[in-house]
Amino acid sequence: MKRKLEANLLVITASLTISFDGAMSAQNRKTPDEPATVRLQPVRTLTDDSSWFDIWPSFSPDGQEVVFTRAPVRGDRRARLWQVSLSGGVPHSLTPADFERDCTRPDWSPDGKTIAFRAAGRSRSQGRGNAFLYDTPGAIWLLTVATGAMKPLTNYRQNDDYYPHWSSDGHWLYISRQSIQGPSNMDIWRIDFRGKEERITSHPTYDVYGVPSPDGKQLSFTSDRDGTRNVWVIDMNKGEKDATQFTFSGGRGATWSPDGRWIAFHPPPLTGHRGPSGGGIYIKRVTGGPTIQVTKSTDDTFHDSPNWSPDGRYILFDELDPNPETASTGHLKIVDVTKIVRR
Fold first, then answer.
1. Residue 49 Cα distances to 54, 70, 240, angstroms
2. Can you give the pLDDT at residue 269?
3. Nearest to residue 74, comparing CAs of 55, 52, 91, 90?
4. 218 located within any domain
5. What's the CA gap between 321 and 331, in Å, rounded?
6. Which residues of the chain register pLDDT less than 50?
7. CA distances from 141 to 54, 200, 265, 274, 293 (A)
8. Residue 3 domain-assigned?
9. SS in 3 state form for 145-174?
10. Whole-number pLDDT of residue 28
C-alpha cells in the first residue's frame, strides 16, 4: 500500500518466444498452449507508499477512478476500501474506520453507483503478516458510492463468499462460495438483488473467481479440476458439462477485455510455477493463439489481480510480496496494452 503517486513510466521492449508446457487435461482439452510471446509493455506506478499495502484494484465504469483494498504495513493491519484517481492525487478511504471487518476484493458496478466487496473478520492476531488473507468466513457487502452506506448481501453464517464480479448489465453478481456446514470445495454461484441464487459449478474440486464475459454468454473461472489451477471457460447456454480449459500451465485471476476478445490472467505465484519466464500479467485471445506476457515481476515480487480499463487500453494490477507472512510490498500498477489489443 503506497500513497505517494508517481508517474514512473517503465518502458521495456522485448520480443521473445518461449514454450509453454503442461500436462494433457482429461476434460475438453483440444491442444496444448501454443508458444508464449514475451512483449513487455509500458508500466506506470499508481500507488507507491511503503507504509501501506495495496491490492485488488478495480476500475470505475468511466475509467477515471480506482477502488482497491489498503492495509497498513505495520500495526493494526485492518483492510479497508480506498479510492484514487487514475491521474494521481491522494487516495481516500471509502469504508469507515470503526467498521470491524476486513474489506477486500472490491468490484465496481457497471452504473458506477455501487461497489461490491467481501467483508470478513480476523482469524489471526493483528499485525502478523498479511492478516486479511487469513480471515474468518465472510459475506458479500454493497457500498453505495454517493452516500457511503453499506449493507450485507449474503450471510456469512451460512456460507463463506468471495470474489464478487458484476455482470455487464448489473443484474447479477457472480461469487465464489463455500458452504459453512457442507463440503470444503468452492463453487461459482450468481445472485441477484431479489434473493434469487443460481449455482453455476458443482465440480468436487476448487472453482473460484467466476467472471462473466461482456455479453454474458460465457464465464471464465479458476479451477484445479485438471490437477493444476488453470483458467476454464463455460458457455452459459451449455453449462458446466462443456467447460473448456483455457490455460494449461497455470492461470488465475482471469478477466475479460471490454470487447470480449481477450482474457488477462496471471500464473500462480509459486516458485517453479510462475509462467514461461517468471511472474507477470499475461493476455490471450479468447479464440486461441499464443499467450502474450505483458509484464514481468522481479524475483521477490509477483503480479496479480489484472483488471481492464473500460476502453480496453490498460490493465490495472498489483505487485506483491509473494510471502503473506511478511507482506512488505503491495503497489498498484498499470500496463498499457494498446499496441497489442488494437491490432
1. 9, 11, 43
2. 63
3. 52
4. yes
5. 10
6. 1-31, 125-129, 271-277
7. 20, 21, 25, 32, 34
8. no
9. CCCCCEEECCCCCCEEEEEEEECCCCCCEE
10. 44
Q: Amino acid identity, residue 238?
A: K
Q: If we measure between CA atoms, which residue out of 145, 86, 149 comes closest to residue 310?
A: 86
Q: Which domain holds residue 197?
A: 9-341
What SS3 state is found at 339?
helix
pLDDT of residue 5: 31
Question: Residue 206 gets which letter from DSSP?
Answer: B
Which amino acid belongs to residue 74? R
24 domain-assigned: yes
CB atoms within 10 A of CB 324: 15
Give the chain's domain count: 1
Count of CB atoms situated within 10 Å of the CB of 161 = 28
Q: Which element (helix H / strand E) includes 189?
A: strand 187-191
User: Nearest CA to 75 among 28, 146, 129?
Assistant: 129
pLDDT recorded at residue 151 = 96
Cβ count near 44 (within 10 Å): 18
CA 36 – CA 39 distance, rounded (Å): 10
In this predicted model, what pLDDT tens digit does every residue of 119-153 receive, in sequence order?
Answer: 998 755 444 445 555 568 999 999 999 999 999 99
Give the CATH number for residue 51.
2.120.10.30
State residue 299's pLDDT score. Answer: 79
3-state secondary structure of 242: helix
The confidence score (pLDDT) of residue 33 equals: 57
Q: Is residue 4 part of a domain?
A: no
Residue 208 identity: V
